[in-house]
Design brief:
Chain lengths: 242, 247
């Protein structure tokens, strides 16, 4: 995480996400997936091909791509279908766009009810016998049972969570890095899924995204760093209020 | 043999050896790398530090961040929309330098009209217009937070102070000032060995000093897992930074 300053002098905290060897693996049509739209299966970071069974390796062989650590699927409209085997780059996103980021949260192990659900616990003194971090009552008398989904101690973290509506401030095309506003679930160097935001307030924010994606061998030659309009670039002189 | 004034026979004392100072060599030896360039110990990808360093060097090309240490007196002008002339200047002694990378900060302390004021500035913030070093010197400690509990005369500095000239290729003077403190209670127990402060003249009774040594942890300096040798990393980064700045 890094600070980034706008031209008005305000500071925002920014998370760096690296796009490492992403390839499109397979195209699943609407009828196959059974949903409303067709899906594209995308694979992430490269990993060794020796620790998986042959059946899982078939997808990679068909696409002609080394084995990937993580596979996710994206719902795609019919006009945005990409041929399996094309690499995906960070330039697929543009600064000023809004993005949802999904990842597995940091695993905290078996945790008690105060840390896991934020219960208040009991006082430390005034005669409390061996009861300082316990849940207290778990149901009423009339219910005569404990409801399903009652908040109790258990394994905390290590589940998929999404942070919505994160603004993209800057993109580095040389190293394939996306600077995303705010914090992102997961520990440092964990695998993360980045998607165009589905929030209704962010529908008009994508001005002219590269459609269907950014092709490296195409005609466009992008500069090494793409900045949002409001970002203060370090090549400019210091900010003054006239 | 001659008898000295004490009445004992004078022992042979060899003449003092001449000390040869090679001024040319000394000029090359002094290297200063700002502490925020050194990456902290952790599992982050070195690519992140490389990119952050590029940004820091880019900012240093446009805006000059001088060399300074904890204990030197600086004057900082920042852009302020609510001030007349839109710029405010603050003079103070640097008590602490924290943070790594672009978020590096330094805290300046001064006593203005009997009110102690501490301001924490970010080195790479675009609102800073100028940083001038009025007096470049080091102190016995890395962290001068104890000045809050010291007598206010040690934290007062003239706002219109003239910059003290410092010749290049000379060693940075170390101010061995021992500061006198206000009566206890202090904000932190500075006499305890965990803070390892050398710049205070403790006027506490001996029993209190001995009691404070009860909290000493003499095994900490031999702990191998806490070792973080930065000499090689510093050399590489120094070469990289210098090459980039010369361009």
């Amino acid at each position: 995480m890094m600070p980034i300053w706008t031209k008005s002098g305000k500071k925002h905290a920014v998370t760096l996400l690296k796009v490492q060897d992403c390839h499109v693996l397979r195209y699943i049509s609407k009828e196959e997936s059974g949903g409303r739209t067709s899906q594209l299966v995308v694979g992430g970071k490269n990993a060794s091909p020796f620790s998986r069974s042959e059946s899982a390796m078939e997808i990679f062989k068909e696409a002609g791509v080394p084995r990937k650590q993580k596979i996710t699927s994206f719902n795609v409209t019919d006009d945005a279908i990409i041929k399996p085997g094309t690499p995906l780059y960070a330039a697929h996103f543009r600064p000023g766009q809004f993005v949802d980021v999904t990842a597995k949260t940091i695993g905290k192990g078996f945790q008690g009810v105060m840390k896991r659900w934020g219960f208040k616990g009991q006082p430390a003194t005034h005669g409390q016998t061996k009861t300082h971090r316990r849940p207290g009552a778990i149901s009423t008398n009339k219910a005569a049972k404990v409801y399903r989904g009652k908040k109790m101690p258990g394994l905390m973290g290590n589940i998929y969570r999404t942070s919505f509506g994160l603004k993209v401030w800057r993109i580095n095309t040389k190293h394939d890095i996306i600077y995303v506003n705010g914090s992102v679930p997961g520990h440092t160097n964990c695998l993360v899924k980045v998607r165009d935001s589905k929030l209704p307030t962010c529908k008009d924010c994508n001005k002219n995204p590269p459609f269907p994606t950014f092709f490296a061998d195409g005609d466009e030659k992008l500069p090494e760093d793409l900045y949002d309009d409001e970002v203060f670039q370090f090549t400019d002189p210091s900010v003054t209020y006239a | 043999c001659r008898i000295s004034s004490d009445g004992k026979p004078a022992t042979f004392q060899p003449p003092p050896k001449p000390v040869i100072i090679d001024k040319q060599k000394q000029g090359e030896e002094r290297r200063f790398l700002s502490p925020e360039f050194i990456p902290p110990r952790g599992r982050t990808d070195p690519l992140k530090f490389y990119i952050e360093r590029k940004d820091m060097i880019q900012r240093r090309k446009v805006f000059n961040i001088p060399e300074f240490y904890v204990g030197s007196i600086l004057a900082v002008t920042t852009a302020n929309p609510y001030a007349s002339e839109k710029a405010s200047r603050f003079v103070g002694i640097c008590i602490q330098r924290g943070g790594k990378g672009l978020g590096a900060t330094f805290v300046l302390r001064n006593v203005i009209e009997d009110q102690g004021v501490e301001i924490c500035y970010e080195l790479y913030s675009p609102r800073i217009q100028a940083i001038e070093v009025l007096k470049l010197e080091k102190r016995l400690d890395d962290n001068l937070m104890y000045l809050r509990d010291a007598l206010p005369e040690y934290s007062t500095f003239d706002v219109n102070m003239k910059p003290v000239s410092h010749l290049e290729h000379e060693e940075i003077p170390v101010n061995k000032l021992q500061v006198r403190m206000k009566p206890k209670p202090w904000s932190k127990r500075w006499e305890r060995p965990k803070y390892n402060i050398k710049g205070i003249k403790f006027e506490l009774p001996e029993e209190k000093m001995k009691e404070a040594q009860k909290w000493s942890k003499p095994w900490l300096e031999f702990d191998m897992l806490r070792e973080y040798d930065t000499s090689k990393i510093e050399e590489k980064i120094w070469k990289e930074v210098n090459e980039e700045l010369k361009k």
